[in-house]
Amino acid sequence: MAEPHMPERHAQLLAYAQGLTPPSGWKVEISGDEIIMMAGPSVIHQRNLLVVREQFDAARPADLMPSENTDLASPNVGKLRNPDLTYIPTAVVELGGNDVPAELAAIAVEIVSPSNPENDLVGKVRDYPLMDIPMYLLVDPREGVVTLYSEPAAGVYHRQWNGTFGDTVPIPEPFGFGLATTGLIRYPA
User: Would strands 168-171 and 156-164 be described as parallel, antiparallel, or unpaired?
Assistant: First the structure.
């Protein structure tokens, strides 16, 4: 059980991380008491992200906007994550600032990095439901697989859909479409 001072500690860690100036092309995340710095993505990563984003953009509700590399913050659980792609309410712009309350995100999308796969495959599978993000789409070009996590409750996702590149991923509302994965490409062996 967390100590009573933990939300304050998490808020302090969040403030510290947001004050860092990472090198160009790097991003900063927080998970518990860890600050994680990651290098920028490869062109295969960016191409796969484009394939996914174009389809989400076509099904995007008018009140949601796409955002790449936006800090999603959950100070009460000590999390600051920066998904490759998220969709957040357009009205969030009125909040100002550099981070968005994580619970406002409709989805987090990650393209697995070959250099740090555990961050996406373990850390974010653990953190995103704690942050109340309703869906987590995980695209793994190392293995050619796609996983959609949904229905978070009590800090875990209760539904998981698994497929391979070429399958159609059933994306629930508020998007409500089938994500075609035939255009995704794998990292070279």
Answer: unpaired
34-73 tens-digit pLDDT: 676 655 557 898 999 999 999 999 999 999 999 997 889 8
Copy the structure tokens of residue 69. Answer: 């590399």
Q: Is 10 exposed, middle or buried (0-12, 13-18, 19+ CB in 10 A)?
A: buried
Q: How many CB atoms lie within 10 A of CB 19?
A: 8
C-alpha 85/C-alpha 87 separation (Å) is 7
Distance CA 102, CA 128 (A): 9
What span, in angstroms and rounded, lies between the C-alpha atoms of 107 and 85? 8
DSSP-derived pairing of the beta strands 34-38 and 27-31: antiparallel
Tokens representing residue 64 in the block: 């949601």
> Of how many residues is the chain composed?
189
pTM given for the model: 0.80
CATH 2.115.10.20 fits 6-180, yes or no: no
* Cα–Cα distance for residue pair 9/20, rounded to 1 Å: 17
The DSSP output letter for 185 is -
> What residues does each domain of the chain span?
6-180
